[in-house]
Amino acid sequence: MNQSSRQLLITGGAGFIGSNFVHYWHRHYPEGYTLVLDALTYAGNRANLAALKEQPGFQFVQGAICDADLLTQLFETGQIDTVVHFAAESHVDRSILGPSAFVQTNLVGTFTLLEAFRKHWEDQGKPEAFRFLHVSTDEVFGSLGPNDPAFSETTPYAPNSPYSASKAGSDHLVRAYFHTYGLPTLITNCSNNYGPYQFPEKLIPLMCVNILLGKPLPVYGDGQNIRDWLYVEDHCRAIATVLEQASPGETYNIGGDNQVKNIDIVEQLCDLMDSSVEGLPFQPARDLITFVTDRPGHDRRYAMNIEKIQRDFGWSPQYDFAAGLKQTVAWYLSRQDWWRPLLSPKYQTFYQALYGL
Q1: Which one of 38, 139, 201, 257 is the catalytic residue?
Q2: Coil, strand, or helix at residue 109?
Q3: Does any domain span residue 207?
Q4: Catalytic residue among 81, 138, 171, 201
Q5: Judging by beta carbons within 10 Å of its beta carbon (0-12, 13-18, 19+), is residue 258 exposed, middle or buried?
Q6: N or C: which end of the chain has fewer CB within 10 A?
Q7: pLDDT value, residue 312
Q8: Looking at the 3D structure of the chain, how many domains does it have?
Q9: What are the E-state strand segments in 280-328?
Q10: Considering the domain boundaries, does residue 164 fall inside one?
């Protein structure tokens, strides 16, 4: 099937990675049809998709992936042949404070979506071109030691938080629906994303916002935890590539090939903001760094082996970390109208509970 002729349902398309993918898809395939389904919880934001509101071939529906009747209706009326499944509760800290929402959305929701799509696929005569692409995380693989090899597609699952356990469960369901029913599924496991439209509870936007506000910069433990950072535009390009070229049942790791310590990221952000923003309320920004009690079960290191997607499709990340970080900071500086309304009293209560600051 030609990519431009796909009829997409994108779940979680008003969230961070989802909305970036919606924009990416519309830039490259403006003649197609895209139906975005999002429950608009705290991390889903209609403003992320405002520029597409009047675009032909774009439709937004507010709703949950646990609503089987709604899913059935959307599959039938939209003649959907492709699902790109982003919808998930995704913040480890929130999963520690309240794990039930993660089990409900990530496990029960994915099951409900799979069942609805399977019925639709079977009713249509099991077309070979249909696809269900499930977007997952490197956190399902657990934690690496300093000298351990990077996660590959065959690394055993070893999740260490309620979030990663719920995502591991959803991965297993997707895999099972391929092997049991022949449903044409795909799984991608990505490393830490960064870029525009990321909710300010996550590390990079949190530090940008707090520097602009002159607030402490909370860093867990000793700050030596390592993540592999992937610019969201590179991730979107990889998803589109897998959707177009991968065979059903395959799994692909997507990473940025940028292993960086948390404290190094925070210090880079401080220096970047000091040099590029006039009139910061507190300088030097590094003096705002505040080490806080480490979170329970905090994985020490993630790293992704991306040889499979490079070998099979020639995909590699195009953004190095310095360039991606500079572009991300510029976006948050220019879009205070986007992030300031998100710092609600409810967000402040969550922030206080998490960091005690």
Answers
A1: 139
A2: helix
A3: no
A4: 138
A5: buried
A6: C
A7: 98
A8: 1
A9: 289-292
A10: yes
**Residue range(s) defining the domain that contains residue 309:** 3-195+229-256+302-318
pTM value is 0.96
C-beta separation of 175 from 134 below 8 A: no
Residue 86 in contact with residue 15, Cβ under 8 Å?
A: yes
Give the residue ranges of the chain where pLDDT is below 70.
none
219 - beta bridge partners? 291
Which CATH number goes with the domain that contains 251? Answer: 3.40.50.720
Q: Please report which helix (H) or strand (E) contains residue 61, including its range.
A: strand 58-62
The answer to whether residue 218 sits within a structural domain is: no
Catalytic residue status for 163 = yes
Structure tokens of 272? 């970047």
Residue 143: name the closest of 212, 31, 226 by CA.
Answer: 226
Condensed to tens digits (0 to 9), the pLDDT of residues 139-198 reads 999 999 999 999 999 999 999 999 999 999 999 999 999 999 999 999 999 999 999 999
d(CA 220, CA 98): 19
Active site residue 138: yes
Cα distance between residue 254 and residue 273, in whole Å: 29
Q: Cβ of 340: how many Cβ atoms within 10 Å?
A: 12
- Which residue, 37, 10, 31, is CA-closest to 21? 10
Task: State the sign of the Cα–Cα–Cα–Cα dihedral 197, 203, 204, 207.
Answer: positive
> Of the listed 29, 33, 163, 319, which one is catalytic?
163
Please name the helix (run of DSSP H) or strand (run of DSSP E) that holds residue 27, with its range, or none. Answer: helix 16-28
Asked whether residue 276 is domain-assigned, the answer is: no
Write out the two tokens for 200.
């300010």
Give residue 357's pLDDT: 79
